[in-house]
Amino acid sequence: MDERIAPLFSPFALRSLRLANRIVMAPMTRGFSPNGTPGADVAAYYARRADTGLIITEGVGVDHPAALGGSGVDGDNAPHMYGKAALEGWRAVVDAVHAAGGVILPQLWHQGVMREMGTGPHPEVESVRPSGIWGPLDRTAMVSPHYMETVAGEPGRPMSDSEVADVIASFARSARWAMEIGFDGIAIHGAHGYMIDNFLWEGTNRRTDRWGGDHRARTAFAAELVRAVRREIGPEPVVNFRFSQWKQQDVRARLAETPQQLAEVLGPIADAGVDIFDGSQRYFDRPEYDGSPLNLAGWAKKLTGKAAQTVGGVGLNSGVYDSKKTGGSDAAVENVHKVAERLARGEFDLVGVGRAIMHDPEWTRRIREGDELLPFDEGSRLVLT
Ligand SMILES: Cc1cc2nc3c(=O)[nH]c(=O)nc-3n(C[C@H](O)[C@H](O)[C@H](O)COP(=O)(O)O)c2cc1C
What we know:
Shape: globular
Organism: Sphingopyxis panaciterrulae
Domain NADH:flavin oxidoreductase/NADH oxidase N-terminal: 8-370
Number of helices: 12
Number of domains: 1
Mean pLDDT: 94
Bound molecules: flavin mononucleotide
InterPro entries: Aldolase_TIM, OxRdtase_FMN_N, Oye-like
GO molecular function: FMN binding; oxidoreductase activity
CATH superfamily: Aldolase class I
Structural class: alpha/beta
Number of strands: 10
Oligomer: single chain
Protein name: 2,4-dienoyl-CoA reductase-like NADH-dependent reductase (Old Yellow Enzyme family)
CATH architecture: Alpha-Beta Barrel
Strand order of the largest sheet: 3-4-5-6-7-8-9-10
C-alpha cells in the first residue's frame, strides 16, 4: 500500500463502534425505496460497499407524518424508519452489510421546511416549519422555479410546542427501532437546510420562545433531540451528527461566522450526547476561518473535543453542486493523499466520500491497492449499482 494513504486504513474505535478503516460512505439519498421500504436491491447496493469502514445510509425519514416529501430523484421513494415493512427491509440491509463485514448507521432525517407539500407518504399533512417560513427566497440556486412558487413561498405558521415535541419524539422512536433491527449506531441529519438546521439557522428560526434567540439558544432543539435519542439508545452506540454552514436556501449562508460562534452552536449539542461531528463541506480542503488551515470538521474537533468526520470532493475534482453544473468530473487521486495527510495530523478522524463511492462500489479497494480511479459519471445518480 502507498504509505501516503496508509492513515486511511488504520482502525477506529469509539463506544461500541469498531471500524477497519477511516473511510465513510457519506449519506446519499437515492430514491429506490417504494413505499419507504428498502428492498433487496438497496441491500445489495450497500453490501457491495461493505469494505468502506463505515456506511451511513441515505437520509431515512423519521416516524413523523411531515418528515418526507419530494419529487424526482432527490425526493421520491425515500425510505423511512417506521412500520413493519420498512423496518424488515432495513433489517435485511443491515444483515447483508454485516454478512459482508461492514458497519452501518442510518441517517435519520426530517425535511422540515424543505418538504414539498402535497407529496410524500402523507401528502395530506401540512409541512412543519419552526417559524412558518422557508427562509430567504432570493438566494437559492438549488430548487426549481416551480418549487419556489408553489412550496417555498407559501406562508405557514410557527410550530407549536407540542409539534416541536412530536418531532423530537419521532427521532427517538425511529432511533430505537433502528437499534432494535441491528444498526451499529445512529447518524442524525442536522445539515443542509432541513428540520434540525432550520432551528439552528436564523434564516429559518425567528422564534422568541425557548427554541429561538441567539446562536446558543437556537441549539435548544438539536440538543433536546440528541438527548432524546441518547435516552432511547443508551450509552453504548455512537451518535454521529451532521451539520453544515451552507443550506439549500443559501449556499453561502453561515451558521457561525467565527470559531467562538461555532463553539456556541456545537457545545450544547456535544454535551447532549454526540460522539462524532460530521462537518459537511463541499470541499474538504477549504479552511473554515481565516488564520488557520483547519476545515469545518477540524474546528468541530478542536472546539468540542469530540471525534470529527470530514467530507467534500474527496477523490474528485469538483464539489457536489459544481459537478452538477459541469455534468461530471474526473477522478483525482492526489487529493486522497492530501486528506490522508490531514487525517494523520489528527485534524479529523474519519473521511466521508460521497459521489465517488456512489459511482464505484470498488472505490475503497482501488484506493487500498493503488488502482486507477474511475472517472465520475453523473449518470450514476440514476441507477443503483
Ligand atoms: C445524490 C446525492 C444525494 C445526497 N443525499 C444526502 C442525504 O440524504 N443526506 C446528507 O446529509 N447528504 C446528502 N448528500 C451529500 C453527501 O453526503 C456529501 O456530503 C456530498 O456529496 C459531498 O461529498 P462528495 O464530494 O464526496 O460527493 C447527497 C449527495 C448526493 C450527490
